[in-house]
Amino acid sequence: MIRIPRAKRKQKAPQNSLRGKKFPFQSPKGMHDILPQDFLYLEKIEKAFKKVSCFFDFLRLEPPLLEDVRLFERGTGPNSEIVQKQMFFVKSRSRSESSLVLRPEYTPGIFRAYVENGLTHSLVPAKFCYWGPVFRYEQPQRGRFRQFYQMGFEILNTLDSVYDAQIISAVYKILAELHLKGIVVKINSIGCRSCRASYVKKLRDYYKNKSFKLCNDCLKRLKENPLRLLDCKEERCQPYKANAPQTLDYLCNNCKTHFKSVLEYLDEAKIPYLIEPTLVRGLDYYSKTVFEIFVEGEENALGGGGRYDYLSESLWSTKLGAAGAALGVERVMEAMKSQKIVLSPKKEHKVFLIYMGEEAKKKAFVLMENFFKEGILVKESFSKESLKSQLRQADKEGAEIALILGQREVFEEVVILRDMKSGNQETVPIEKIVPQLKKRLRFL
Ligand code: AMP
Fold first, then answer.
1. Residue 81: partners with Cβ closer than 8 Å, 6 or more residues away
2. From the CA of 19, how far away is ligand 1's center (Å)?
3. 304 Cβ below 6 A of ligand 1
4. What is the residue with the minimal CA distance to atom 8 of ligand 1?
5. Options 2.60.40.1740, 3.30.930.10, 3.90.1150.10, 3.40.50.410; which CATH number does 36-192+252-338 get?
6. What is the DSSP string of 207-257?
7. How far is the CA of 135 from the centre of ligand 1 (A)?
8. Contacts of 211 (CB under 8 A, 6+ apart)
9. Sheet order of strands, 147-156 included
10. Position in ligand 1 atom list of the atom nearest CA 305
């Protein structure tokens, strides 16, 4: 065996030399890194999402990140803000291929996947859930990013009002699972095409003689998408919004019965809601039920959705009713932080492996391979050299057991097992360390 001479002590890189040295790259505007400390929240949220998805039997579906732009132009709607201003186009190498965009929302992609994969006969209704990134070209501000994550539910191929209520119940349950306080669902009905037409006419008439007082966006909305006049956040438009005609007064009998039935389900299940007559939501495919969900202390909605019976018509010229909703993951996370929901990291590693000298480092490296195979979680600190600093770290990390390997232990094929609380140590033959650890870990 070739003995490699012990490496000279490595010169420590002077840490301070990095201070003040400017790094020339940043994440793109409105897009952020998700750092390890946030995963504590993300994992909790994902756990709640999975629990609810599993309970209601939503099947996971993940469409590609890129989709044909026409899917959104026709599905989300040519007059929607998403299509008009918010899509990120991806330049393709081939001119003959249709334009691709980064998905600005999931719903049209989920519907496309449902039809394209021939699931329209086998899954009726089809219940899908999703979790992933979404891209919108926005002016970044608190709670509004260009890349953010959405988790959501879609129930396709049904007209039944019970599913509008089930979607609301599902998003409500996620927030309740996370112990968020003051959850409230704001809900409205924007009717179907026939009753909405007479409402929109009334709304136009109402706003027409106020047009000189409206903001520029509202002037545009008045022409292109009058329902969205009710969405305006500008101070000067608020008084008109407050006195505008309300959708609920113009619903046809069918839409009225549908809405009443959704509210009855929510009442029965004791899901708190507020009827919000100005709630309309911006997308063309919505019909009947629309809702948003809020929690105490947050101005922005954490999620929203509703019934979208017209998506199938615009994409496929068929009538397949559907309902769905999405929650913004970052907004849920922010709400948890501002409501001071504290999560402490689960202490997974109870054993800390300490080495002294090059031979012991090599042995420790091999031991780690063994621990992995045996499913024992062991932490190391190969970048530290002294016993003292490694013990200090083991202590800082709350390890219950330290395994210590020096030159002598390597030679004698043993390991020192130290109980970090009592400081008691014993020497264990190396081939017995796995069963010994398993036995001790059972009681920790
Ligand atoms: P929407 O698809 O617009 O109905 O949005 C559903 C949810 O996604 C919202 O209630 C937010 O929680 C979240 N969301 C929408 N847009 C953004 C954004 N630009 N940045 C962060 N979260 C967003």
1. 282
2. 37
3. yes
4. 328
5. 3.30.930.10
6. HHTTGGGS-HHHHHHHHH-GGGGGG---GGGHHHHHHS--GGGG--HHHHH
7. 10
8. 219, 222
9. 59-60, 126-135, 147-156, 322-328, 303-307, 287-294, 184-189, 273-275
10. 4
Nearest CA, atom 19, ligand 1: 144
Q: Which amino acid is at 355?
A: Y
**In the CATH scheme, what is the code of domain 351-441?**
3.40.50.800
Which helix (H) or strand (E) segment holds residue 132: the answer is strand 126-135
H helices of 234-317, where?
238-243, 253-268, 311-316
Domain boundaries, the chain: 36-192+252-338, 351-441
Which residue pairs from 373-379 have beta carbons closer than 8 angstroms and sit at least 24 positions apart in sequence?
A: 374/434, 374/438, 376/351, 376/434, 376/437, 376/438, 376/441, 377/348, 377/349, 377/350, 377/351, 378/349, 378/351, 378/352, 378/353, 378/403, 379/349, 379/351, 379/352, 379/353
Q: What is the chain's percent helix, strand, coil content, to nearest 5?
A: 40, 20, 40
What backbone torsions phi and psi does residue 418 show, to the nearest 5 degrees?
-115, 125
Reported pTM: 0.90
Full pLDDT tens readout for the chain, 444 residues: 334 344 444 445 555 678 888 999 999 999 999 999 999 999 999 999 999 999 999 999 999 999 999 999 999 998 888 999 999 999 888 887 889 999 999 999 999 999 999 999 999 999 999 999 999 999 999 999 999 999 999 999 999 999 999 999 999 999 999 999 999 999 999 999 999 999 999 999 998 888 778 888 888 888 888 888 898 888 888 888 888 999 999 999 999 999 999 999 999 999 999 999 999 987 778 999 999 999 999 999 999 999 999 999 999 989 999 999 999 999 999 999 999 999 988 888 899 999 999 999 999 999 999 999 999 999 999 998 899 999 999 999 999 999 999 999 999 999 999 999 999 999 999 999 999 999 999 877
Amino acid at 436: Q
Is residue 186 lining ligand 1, measured as CB closer than 6 Å? no
